[in-house]
Amino acid sequence: MPGENAYDPRLVLKREKYFSVRPKPLEQWLWKAGVPPSAERVFWLHWQEGSRHQDWCSEIPIRRVAQQCCLDVSTVTRAYQLLNRLGLIRRQDPGRDPANPFQQATAVTEVRVPRDLLVELGQHPSRTRLTGEPAVADARTGAAGRGDAAPLSSARAVPPSSPETARRDPFPGLSMRERLRAIGALVALMSKAEQRAFQDAQRLRSHAMGFDADCRLSPEQRATLLLFLEICAAKPAAPAITSPATLENRAAVTARKLTIFELSRLRREVQSVVGSAATTERLREIVWSIEEGALQRFQTLHAIRIALKKLREGAWTRPNRMPPNWARALQSSKEFAARPTAAPETCRSA
């Protein structure tokens, strides 16, 4: 803007330095709940890390949390206990550190939204979306925007239309029922021979048909019928997914990836059954079976329970199709390559 001083430190802070984004409804809820400032610092630190990792989970040692929030370790411990009671976080103990079985691994912290805030979330004003920005699913209805879209079970998958398709649409702006009525009105004006030719073209998926010399249809109406036959002769689109259960199962099969929270919980359960020595190998086999193997067809929680049951009963065997060099470690995979490796800690009071 004209008149602005480029060396103003406020502008430097605003335009060049990092800053945090705090949702206003959640911040107001923390104020109304009377959350102490120390607990707010801890919560927003994990919120920022979880948002940056895009899974709302973070692994930060308690001493580093105390250092970044300028608090004592005991204050951070009490903040964790308070935030856990309020339903703002969930912490998972992953068990012993695989690199050093005599030390406790860093707990995984997941930030959450309290239930009473979810109830009144639709009452808070929403920001204006920019052009092209995808709509976010509503927390209560699952529909995009403010919950005014149709439910998933009755929605139809409409492919995006290109400008050529929009120009070739014989009935722009009309619903499917109105289009069928318009086609029926044109067919009623044709002769018996033309009607049989129109039906044969539809049956054979042909985009051409013959008209009588004394046809009562105008050239525009003939072009509309031929364009309609061309659209009908096109290759049918793949059937749309109309069932929420079908959509969930297909998404789980095609893109199965255990989260850091599920991996941490699974590691602790496996460690309690087989001990620290065999934890890494058994965890690798179970994760492969859930993500790419025989347990992929089940839901994530169901697959984890099946694997743990077989492990407790001594019936678990290495998957036959598992590659020998397959690796899916917590800190060595691509998903967590950008995360700094958390140093082990000995404090378990949090």
Write the layout of secondary structure elements.
Blueprint: H1 9-15, H2 24-32, H3 37-53, E1 57-58, H4 62-69, H5 73-85, E2 89-92, E3 108-111, H6 115-119, H7 163-167, H8 176-188, H9 192-203, H10 219-233, H11 244-254, H12 260-274, H13 279-291, H14 300-312
Antiparallel strand pairs: 1-3, 2-3
Helix pairs in contact: 3-4, 3-5, 4-5, 12-13, 12-14
Please characterize this protein's 3D structure.
This protein has 350 residues and is mainly alpha-helical. It has 3 domains: 107 residues, Arc Repressor Mutant, subunit A (Orthogonal Bundle); 71 residues, no CATH class; 89 residues, no CATH class. Strands 1-3-2 form a 3-stranded antiparallel beta sheet, with helices on both faces. The longest helix has 17 residues. It is flat, with a radius of gyration of 30 Å.
